[in-house]
Design goal:
- A five-stranded antiparallel β-sheet has the order 1-5-4-3-2, with helices on one face.
- It has four helices and five strands; from the N terminus they run ααβαββββα.
- It has a domain of 68 residues.
- The termini are far apart.
- With 141 residues, the protein is α+β, with helices and mostly antiparallel strands.
- 19% of the residues lie in helices and 20% in strands.
Length: 141
């Protein structure tokens, strides 16, 4: 059973009877046709609470200070030079062909993202449930 489209969409005729809200399956599975199927799909990927971990991710955009233009990959002030320069701090390059495309150090890594962005991911720490602190009650009695 499929949910009815919103009145605005129905008036415009934007959804035809044979259209679905999900893309054609790429992995050979059937399209998701109900809210319940979607919920079950995400629920199947849940980890038990004891396996929950916290990590951080920081995205940074490299640009030339004078021109505000994105950094090129090659050149003395490019992304390649930045990645190669970080090796002096103990980062190990991840190379594709002859090009460094990421850095690793321990359980942390720096990767290249679209639009001349770089992303730093730190290792995951202890379970979230252990980090919870008791806070004093704010209620008055």
């Amino acid at each position: 059973m499929r949910a009815a489209p919103s009145p605005a969409i129905a008036r415009r005729g934007m959804l035809r009877e044979n259209q679905r809200m999900s893309a054609p399956p790429s992995g050979g599975g059937a399209p998701i046709e109900s809210r319940r199927q979607l919920i079950e799909y995400f629920a199947a990927g849940n980890k038990p609470r004891t396996a929950w971990r916290m990590g951080t991710e920081h995205e940074k955009f490299g640009y030339h200070v004078k021109t505000l233009k994105p950094l090129p990959y090659d050149g003395p002030t490019g992304i390649r030079a930045m990645l190669e320069g970080m090796t002096r701090f103990g980062w190990q390059p991840v190379v594709e062909g002859n090009n460094p495309i990421a850095l690793e150090r321990g359980k942390a890594n720096i990767t290249l993202e679209p639009a001349a962005s770089s992303s730093f991911q730190a290792r995951r720490s202890r379970p979230c449930t252990r980090r919870r602190r008791k806070t004093p009650s704010t209620s008055t009695r």
